């Protein structure tokens, strides 16, 4: 018996991610918020969320395969990616640099969003949630990784 769910289902966890994304968008601006979410989703190997953020980056005119980022943007993106790949173990230098730029409340928001996105990825994987049809064109092969270019 398959656990597969044919479409992205409305759920409490996706609602939490949506609410927090809105706050992250207000904090970081649209472009950086999308890159932040995309790199977390990519790092967590989330087909559902990677496709969502990839679509939105493309609609913004960005190339999600080769993201050109400023040094201050890189700080935020690496922070989110490390949360997804290192189980919350953030190098002291990265954390210190982030806390020099953002308040404690803002750092908590970034951590909360990143961890909720990782949790939603696990939720989707556990229930084998399929990427909805409208996002299918934006799904990348599993082995593909986005490259970052510091400008």
TrEMBL record:
InterPro entries: AhpD-like. Gene3D superfamilies: AhpD-like (1.20.1290.10). It comes from the Bacteria. This is Carboxymuconolactone decarboxylase family protein.
